[in-house]
Amino acid sequence: MDGDVVIPVGDVTLQATFTLPGGARGVVTFAHGSGSGRHSPRNRYVAGVLNDGSFGTVLADLLTEEEERIDMHTGELRFDIDLLARRVTAVVDWLATTPETTALPIGLFGASTGAAAALVAAAERPEEVKAVVSRGGRPDLARDALPRVKAPTLLIVGGRDDVVIELNRQAHDQLQTEKRLEVVPGATHLFEEPGTLEQVAKLATEWFSSHL
């Protein structure tokens, strides 16, 4: 069941790209961040590396087309962590009830504000979500959910992303589960420097391999 799928969430539907390699050992849902969606080249690259490592992936637009238009002008929905977390949780529920994936462990990969949404979803679905990876994330925005997260959590931050490093350190202290903070030397917030995104993909694959 590879290709574009539609995932119902309450009274809206989310557009998603679903890839499930043969013999998959788990499936990872991506929670995109500020103004980013399923066509994000960075997340698609990481998803491809995970697919090569025998993990399924779901890249879903967490906002509808109408919401994207609103957010382009206001920037408010990308910081609506409750809304984004409900959408991520709905994708987790969809995977848990879809015949092809119902038996597979689920991981979450969050970027920017999507990382906070992923952590809230992990706290809401402790039985289903088995691991979380955050790339250049804002886990601090998950606030009260952090101590409730049971899934082992890897926080990856760029070494030149000073403000976000400190926010991740604070969130790391609040997590009460297995956790690790990994700083990628020379990387800025978007990991655009040569070789840095490759390091993110390698770290994520290793983390999911250990915990899914």
Tell the overall outline.
globular
Sheet with most strands: 8 strands, mixed
How many strand segments?
Answer: 8
Question: CATH homologous superfamily, by name?
Answer: Alpha/Beta hydrolase fold, catalytic domain
Which structural category do the helix and sheet elements fall into? Answer: alpha/beta
Offer a concise description of the structure:
The protein is built from six helices and eight strands.
Characteristics:
212 residues; single chain
Question: Would you kindly provide a written description of the structure presented here, covering whatever features stand out?
Answer:
The protein has an eight-stranded mixed beta sheet, sandwiched between helices. It has helices at 41-52, 65-74, 81-97, 113-124, 162-174, 196-211; strands spanning 3-9, 12-19, 27-31, 56-60, 106-111, 129-135, 153-158, 179-184. It contains six helices and eight strands. The radius of gyration is 15 Å and the shape is globular. It has 212 residues and is of the alpha/beta class. The chain has one domain (3-211): Rossmann fold (3-Layer(aba) Sandwich).
How does the SSE layout of this entry go?
Elements: E1 3-9, E2 12-19, E3 27-31, H1 41-52, E4 56-60, H2 65-74, H3 81-97, E5 106-111, H4 113-124, E6 129-135, E7 153-158, H5 162-174, E8 179-184, H6 196-211
Parallel strand pairs: 3-4, 3-5, 5-6, 6-7, 7-8
Antiparallel strand pairs: 1-2, 2-4
